[in-house]
Write a structure and sequence with these properties.
By secondary structure, the chain is of the alpha/beta class. It has 2 domains: 1-94 and 175-327, Rossmann fold; 105-173, no CATH class. It is built from 13 helices and 12 strands. It has helices spanning 47-54, 85-90, 102-105, 112-124, 128-141, 147-150, 160-172, 190-207, 218-224, 242-247, 252-259, 296-300, 318-326, and strands spanning 3-15, 20-32, 36-40, 63-72, 75-76, 95-98, 178-182, 210-215, 227-232, 235-241, 307-310, 313-315. It has an 8-stranded mixed β-sheet with strand order 6-7-8-3-9-10-12-11, sandwiched between helices. The chain has a 4-stranded antiparallel β-sheet with strand order 2-1-4-5. Strand 1 (3-15) and strand 2 (20-32) form a beta hairpin. Helix 4 (112-124) packs across helix 5 (128-141), helix 5 crosses helix 7 (160-172) and helix 7 (160-172) runs parallel beside helix 8. The longest helix is centred in the middle third of the chain and has 18 residues, at 190-207. InterPro entries: AAA+_ATPase, ABC_Ni/Peptide_Import, ABC_transporter-like_ATP-bd, ABC_transporter-like_CS, Oligopep_ABC_C, P-loop_NTPase. Keywords: ATP-binding, Cell membrane, Membrane, Nucleotide-binding, Transport. One of its GO terms (cellular component) is plasma membrane. It is a peripheral membrane protein.
């Protein structure tokens, strides 16, 4: 597979009255064409901010991308301004995003058809009649009943699941190369969530679209994702294929996340403690206060970069890396 997106050293900060928050700190990863990758971690670890940075949707002030590069199809997106013509053409056209809550993403004063039509006329330059035809067809593809009639409804007239189906359909309208799904099914009940996940999986496979799934649900990751990036305190602390991470998690935080997945007949094992403040964070491992493997060297030396273990597996855990060296 060809490389589609390469993020290198991405750092995003927010300036507050208490100090500078490094919400995303030196994050690097890649996405190949047609690949489904997962971005997992606790709330506040930087998952959503990293993806908003890729899309140039960070509000400035207070936020600012201060370092790094985001290369998409050979173009460094950070060279373009947030409202530049080049970025507006890529956003929604070549890269789409499905947000967590469709009621805050859809315009309550516009019909579904008009909102979908605007995407088509803006990016593909087609007339309103053809835009309506394509919009109704896409609503049909994402399982909206009676799509010709529903196209003229307003968002409040649809259920939560139907609104999210509209968002999925809208993200596919221009046949993008990549979709970012930011907790797209979190607010839905389990049945509707499963239906939407299957729909997204079918759609991205049908159109050979890459998908970045931002989630804290490891069950979703295990079922749909090829590779996983685990984030903690603004950094990627472990990455690898689903099989590698599930069979042999190298970072104690990843182990903790896996133990938090409900299993029949087993008690949940929570991760003790709280995530650290991202203001004036020390250079040592951010998971140190909660880590059961911590040793003296962890307190004295800076956290390692992502280091290769085997295959596609990388970790930043100093103790585990030293253990591999000793072996």
């Amino acid at each position: 597979m060809e490389r589609l997106l390469t993020v290198s050293g991405l750092t995003t900060e927010f300036r507050t009255e208490r100090g500078t928050v490094k919400a995303v700190n030196d994050v690097s990863y890649h996405v190949d064409e047609g690949e489904i990758i997962g971005l997992v971690g606790e709330s506040g670890c930087g998952k959503s901010v990293s993806q908003l940075s890729v899309m140039q949707l960070i509000p400035n002030p207070p936020g600012k991308i201060v370092a790094g590069s985001v290369e998409f199809e050979g173009q460094d997106l950070l060279r373009y301004g947030r409202e530049s013509r080049e970025m507006c053409a890529i956003r929604g056209g070549r890269i789409s995003m499905v947000f967590q809550e469709p009621m805050t993403s859809l315009n309550p004063a516009m019909t579904i058809c008009r909102q979908m039509g605007e995407v088509l006329t803006e990016h593909l330059g087609i007339d309103k009649a053809e835009a309506r035809e394509r919009s109704v067809d896409m609503l049909s593809q994402v399982g909206i009943p009676d799509p010709g009639k529903r196209a003229d409804d307003y968002p409040h007239q649809l259920s939560g699941g139907m609104r999210q189906r509209v968002m999925v359909g809208m993200s596919m309208l221009c046949n993008p190369k990549m979709i970012i799904a930011d907790e797209a099914t979190t607010a839905l009940d389990a049945t509707i969530q499963a239906q939407l996940l299957e729909l997204m999986y079918e759609m991205v496979n049908k159109y050979h679209t890459a998908l970045v799934m931002v989630t804290h649900n490891l069950g979703i990751v295990a079922r749909y994702v090829h590779r996983v990036n685990v984030m903690y305190a603004g950094r990627i602390i472990e990455s690898g294929t689903v099989r590698e991470l599930w069979a042999n998690p190298m970072h104690p935080y990843t182990e903790g996340l896996l133990k938090c997945v409900p299993k029949l007949g087993e008690r949940l094992v929570p991760i003790k403690g709280m995530p650290p403040s991202l203001i004036n964070r020390p250079p040592t491992c951010p998971f140190l206060p909660r880590c059961r493997l911590r040793q003296k060297s962890c307190f004295e030396e800076p956290v390692p970069e992502l280091t290769h273990v085997e295959g596609d597996h990388y970790t930043t855990c100093r103790v585990r890396l030293e253990g591999l060296t000793d072996d």
